[in-house]
Amino acid sequence: MASAETAAEHERILREIESTDTNCIGPTLRSVYDGQEHGLFMEKLEGRIRNHDREIEKMCNHHFQGFVDSITELLKVRGEAQKLKGQVTETNQKLQSNGKELLTTMDELRQCRLQQRNIATTIDKLTHCLPVLEMYSKLQEQMRSKRYYPALRTLEQLEESCLPQAGSYRFCSIMAENISRLRTHIRDVSMSDLKDFLESIRKHSDKIGETAMKQAQVQIARDNAVTSQQHSAGGRRIRNEACLDRTGSNPFTEQDSGILDVEDEEADEVSGAQDLVDFSPVYRCLHIYSVLGARDTFENYYRKQRRKQARLVLQPHSNMHETLEGYRRYFNQIVGFFVVEDHILHTTQGLVNRAYVEELWELALSKTIAALRTHSSYCTDPDLILDLKNLIVLFADTLQGYGFPVNQLFDMLLEMRDQYGEILLKKWNQSFRQILDQDNYSPIPVATPEEYQRITGQFPFQDPELDNMPLPKKLPFSEFVPKVYSQLKEFIYACLKYSEDLHLSSTEIDDMIRKSTNLLLTRTLSHCLQYATKKKNVGLAELVQIIINTTHLEQSCHYLEEFISNITNVPPDTINATKLYGTSTFKDARHAAEEEIYTNLNQKIDQFLQLADYDWTAAQGGGQASDYLSDLIAFLCSTFAVFTHLPGKVAQTACMSACKHLSTSLLQLLLESDVRQVSMGALQQFNVDVKECERFARAGPVPGFQGDTLLLAFIDLRQLLDLFTQWDWSTYLADYGRPTCKYLRVNPHTALALLEKMKDTSRKNNMFAQFRKNERDKQKLIDTVVKQLRNLIASNQA
């Protein structure tokens, strides 16, 4: 049983060896050697080999004849093959000999084809590279000629289109590496040009502004000429319309350096302010930064630098107020700055906008107005103020022509009008004082008709009676009347000059002139006239002439009203029209002069009274008036004779005032505390002097008094002296307090004081005669009267 299995296994292994690849026979043989029947297997293997050998031998015997035949044929074929080989070798040699030239030609053809292909490739590459090189050469030429914006465009085209098409070449790499460096160089150079431009316009802003203001002045002159022609034709246009026309179409921005169209046919007469500036650096730098994608950076830088320049321009010089040129340079710089900004605004898109320019203008307006207010306050010359006003008007009109609002400037001019008025008042105050100081205060003598016409031409004086008088003759007023009247007209002209070109209506101008003239009358001229009447050493003749002069000036006030109405074309009867205060001014001055006359007369009277030398203890009075009083009466007579040209009321008032003061002063002289004793003889002399005064009053030194009105000035003194000289105490004491009392004007206090002085005199002079009966009776009577007066005073007080 076991041998059968072994034999089957050996058979399987042999089949596996026969059918298996020799590379995989190892495991099969290993299974043989691992078993116990190795010898048996070897026997079977040898038997299998012998069987295969027998089969091979059978097969070879079967095919041997065919093999022999094949060998025989092969031997025959070898001979033929040798012969063929020889022929082939011969043919090959011939072919090789004949093909050498062909191979050489083929090599040459191959080289030619290779060269041709290389040339075509080279041409193709050069076709792509030449535009790059040409573009780069163009770029270098643009850089050398400083045409940076075209160079930047060329650089952009080179980078975006030419270099990508050229391929990867070393020179392309170098060009690509240089692109950023060239952009940086272009940006830096354009920024340098911009800085140079900013510095240039900063230096030349004065010249730019001067040119712009000259151009505006020419435009204003043309507008005024057109307006005048329209006025002559019957039409009248308000100047504001001309300003609005200039605002609507900017004549200056249209006359730039060729960027905008020139529409003004007459622009050649005055070159545009922008012609002085080359704006190409700004445009070039703007375009360059726009291409570089840094437009915001450029705009911020430009605006920041211009703001700094604006602050420098708006900073005035410390001595600007000293001359008009200082103001002119200041205005020229401001105008030049905004002319440039306005041009940039209208010729670029977005570099500056309207809001930015308006912001700068608001800043400039506030600082300019503040500077003008500060520096103009130092000015004391009205001519400089007037020139400054005209310069400010031209400055405002120029900028208004560029579309900038200038209402605040005109408002400031209206504020300066008050300052101008104050300066005029100070100047005219000096003129009035000089006229008053140089006047001789005497009527003007006229010797020729020409002289008479000259004076009446200066001052509106009309007197038919004087006109008919033969030459030579005298005008009633002195030189200061026509001079003051001429100065009043000059002041009105000065006020009118300031109001011109301020865009004011005729009514506003008329109101301004009238108010300023009223200030001149009520403040300046009034103070000057007061100064003339109050100054030292002014005589009564001068005061009389001042009254006459102010009377004529008062009468001329309505001519001043007409003069103002004529130059302002505003009727004087217009509703709410300001009236001149000249009448009240001259009236007040005349009253002041009258009061000064009264005061001077009283002072003169006091000076004469200081010369009085009464012997208050004299036993008997003289028969003649005192010397001092005679001199005083002679002075009053001569003085009142000068008052013939005064209004009657003034002369009467002066005479009455002098008499009252004389009466009061005489009474005070009698009652003064230094006079301790008064005798009856002294009273008699005093009574003679008073009679002399009454004789003067009764003579009527000034016409116009009714009856004995002037005597009433001495009635208090007359009744007192009559009471003492007549010793009529019984009547006085009995009738005291009654309206019909004879001594109604005698005050019991005054009578008691004088009686006390007489009582002391009686006691002193009669101390050794007291035993005489008459003297004792007189003393007793005085004591009785004193006692009764004291009782009367006490009863009245109770």
TrEMBL record:
Signal peptide: none annotated. One of its GO terms (cellular component) is exocyst. Pfam families: EXOC6_Sec15_N, Sec15_C. Residues 408-757 form the Exocyst complex subunit EXOC6/Sec15 C-terminal domain. Transmembrane segments: none annotated. Component of the exocyst complex involved in the docking of exocytic vesicles with fusion sites on the plasma membrane. Belongs to the SEC15 family. This is Exocyst complex component. It comes from Triplophysa rosa.
